[in-house]
Each structure stands twice: as C-alpha cells, then as structure tokens.
Design brief:
Length: 394
C-alpha cells in the first residue's frame, strides 16, 4: 500500500511542464500551486484520518483515502482549468495520500510492533514505501514517450487499484476507542501534546523535512530540464529528472533501514540532527557545481539516502513520548507540520521560478532550514511525556 500510494504522487514532477504548457501558457506556477495544495491538504487531513483510524478503525480510514485518491487522479487527468486542477491534483489527491500513506499505515505497524523493535519495523515499512518511488517515476517516464500526459495519469491511476486488495488483509485496529476512558477528547489530546517542548521541536524539524522533499520531488525534473549542461533534448532532460527521483527512492530504501538501525544504537534526536546537517551539506555541494547528468544522479543517490530516513525516527519518538493509543492522531499532527513545509517548498519553487527563472533562492533557503532543524533536534528529549489526561500505554 505504501509503495503504491507514495509512488503515484511522485509522478507529478514529470507532468508540471507538459501540463502547464498545454493548459496555462507555460507558467508552472499554477500547477505548482496545485501540488502545493496537495501537500497542504495531505497534512491538514492527516490528523482527521488519524482520529478516524483511532476511533472507528483503520480500515475505514484506508477505504476513504483510497476513494479520494482515485477520484483526484481522474479529475487531474480530465481537468482543464486551474480551479479543477487545484481540486483534483490538490485537494482530492492530498486527501487520498493522507488516508493511504504514512500516517495510517505507520500507526498500524506501530501498534503491532514490539516496543523494543518499533523503530526497526517502522524503518522497514517506510523503506518499502519508497519502492513505489523507484518504479512509478520510471513508469511515468516510459509512458510519456508513448502517451500524452493525460493518458499517462489515467494509466498510473490504475496502479492504485491493488490497494483495494490489500486493505482487507491488514491486521488492523477495528476495536474503536469510543469511551471517554479510552479516547481522550481531541482538544485534550492536542493540548497535552503541544504542551510538550520536545513534541514542538519535532514539529519544527518535520516542517523542514517536508520543505526539502516536496520541493525536490515537484521541481527537480524542471530544474534538470532548464539548468543541466547537456546536449539532450528538453524531454530527455525531464525524463532524467524523473529517473533521478527513482534513484532517490531506491537509495532511500537503504538509507531508511540504516537510520532505523542507528536509532536503536544512538539517541534518535542525534541521528535526526545528523541527517539534517548532511542534507544541507549535500544541497550546498550540488548547487555549487555545474549541473550535469552525472551530478544530478549523484545528488539523487546521496539525497535519497537521507530522504525518508527521518520518518521512522520521528514516529518512534512520538510513540516513546505518548504511547500507541493515540498514535494516529499525534503522528498526524506532526505530519501536518511536515506538509505545511511541503506546501511552502513547492509553492515557493514555482512562484520564484516564474518570477526569476531560477531556483537559487529556494535552494539556499533549504540549506538554512536544514541547519536550523539540526539544531532543534539536539534539544529533543527522548523520554515519555508526563501524562496530562491522555490515555497513555507507554
């Protein structure tokens, strides 16, 4: 499920240019806003999907997300106006990813995994989710050689259908936490979590993670097409950008597994801090050199190793602080911060490129945010939060 859900959303960077050329006169800002809305809605909807999963059962949340995802992809493929694209590729796809990706699935795994190995199993799950980012951009790149962008999206939408076959086989929480003794009111949950300084720092750090990942996913193909020093055609360069995203997904499998193992050996906040420092350094080196096909693939390989390595560590810290009962809700709130960062990363990328024909400002902002996030994680305390009315089990 994670492979398909996460993989399908990775194809949008490959359609920014052709969709914008056909519908919006070549301005990428309009569809960049659609993808930014997608990231924002993904985050805004995550706490709600988490509460549905915690209170009414995981399968109901997963089915709702699946239906939104398929409908949103079809609206994107058939839409011709900015408003329709914002609704389809933005709102509906954002809700679809929210209901089928990390927030819900990691909560299922977190409840099932033994406490001493949670970060390991969460790492495996996150890494396998990246398999979709390996396959789907490559498939999209291949399909665009034979089909226009609309038909390509329709075909890719069909890849979501196996999710419907997976949901009935998941061993999920179908015993709703319905009584007041078992499930604290949402206002009490939020108040308790946001009164914990380390939880606030995790939110700040995950904002930066979302900014980095969403900006690169949405704009790397366009960046390569316009700034790569090569004799290849624009279509070939855009395909190279998609292939780079696929390589990042492949590297992420190993990077996430490594990070989850390191999280069992060293304090998780320190591992997270190191990841953000390395991200800032990798970006600085990449933009300081001429952009070539080789440098693009090296950047994708190294950055991919740092891609989703933050997810199992961050989710494990939430479990450590608050236990698994309200995991869906509380990780959903952290993920909201992640997607707020994603919104600004994608939107600023498109808006500044349209104005200055450059991504330099966003690259440098990414470096600054990476350093600030590294500092914030050094202050995170890896220990259970003092109970304030929440139903803890940790």
């Amino acid at each position: 499920m994670l492979a398909l859900s996460f993989g399908v959303r990775a194809i949008f960077g490959g359609v920014v240019e052709p969709l914008s050329d056909e519908l919006f006169g070549g301005s990428i800002g309009v569809f960049s806003l659609s993808i930014a809305i997608q990231n924002l809605v993904w985050g805004l909807a995550q706490p709600s999907f988490g509460m549905v999963a915690d209170k009414f059962g995981d399968r109901r949340a997963l089915w709702l997300g699946f239906m939104c995802y398929v409908l949103g992809m079809m609206v994107c493929a058939l839409g011709t106006t900015p408003l329709v694209q914002h609704f389809g590729a933005g709102v509906l796809v954002g809700m679809g990813v929210s209901g089928t990706a990390f927030g819900i699935v990691l909560a299922v795994v977190g409840r099932a995994a033994p406490e001493d190995k949670r970060s390991y199993y969460l790492g495996i799950t996150s890494a396998m989710g990246s398999a979709g980012q390996v396959v789907m951009p490559l498939m999209a790149s291949w399909l665009t050689e034979w089909l226009d962008w609309r038909l390509m999206i329709i075909v890719i939408t069909g890849a979501l259908l196996p999710i419907a076959m997976c949901i009935p086989f998941l061993r999920v929480n179908e015993s709703p936490l319905s009584s007041s003794a078992e499930y604290a009111p949402v206002t009490q949950t939020v108040r308790s979590a946001f009164g914990h300084p380390s939880y606030l720092l995790l939110n700040m750090g995950f904002f930066v993670c979302g900014f980095h990942l969403a900006f690169i996913t949405a704009h790397l193909p366009n960046y390569v097409q316009h700034f790569c020093v090569s004799s290849a055609s624009p279509d070939e360069l855009r395909a190279l950008g998609l292939q780079a995203l696929a390589l990042a997904g492949l590297a992420n499998i190993f990077g996430t597994l490594l990070a989850s193992q390191l999280g069992m050996l060293f304090p998780k906040p320190y591992v997270l801090s190191a990841i953000y420092v390395l991200r800032a350094l990798v970006i600085l080196i990449f933009i300081s050199q001429p952009v070539t096909p080789a440098s693009v693939m090296i950047f994708a390989l190294v950055m991919g190793g740092l891609w989703l390595s933050t997810v199992p560590l961050t989710s494990a810290l939430v479990l450590t602080m608050f236990g698994s009962r309200a995991m869906g809700t509380l990780f959903g709130l952290v993920f909201l911060s992640h997607q707020l960062g994603g919104f600004f990363g994608v939107w600023l990328g498109g808006a500044l490129f349209d104005r200055y024909a450059s991504y330099d400002q966003v690259w440098y902002l990414s470096i600054i945010l990476g350093v600030l996030s590294a500092i914030a994680h050094l202050l995170v305390q890896e220990r259970p939060a003092p109970p304030k009315g929440l139903a803890y089990d940790g």
